[in-house]
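User: Second chain of the day. Same drill as before.
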Amino acid sequence: MGGKKIPYSASLHVGYIGFCLVEILSVH
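Assistant: Same format as last time:
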């Protein structure tokens, strides 16, 4: 979306990291 083309695997990886961060923050 936009001008950048992000590989599907890369977008999944970023989404996974974001999900982990949310889980860690929600614990605190």
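Residues 13 and 22 are 14 Å apart (CA to CA).

User: Great, on to the next one.
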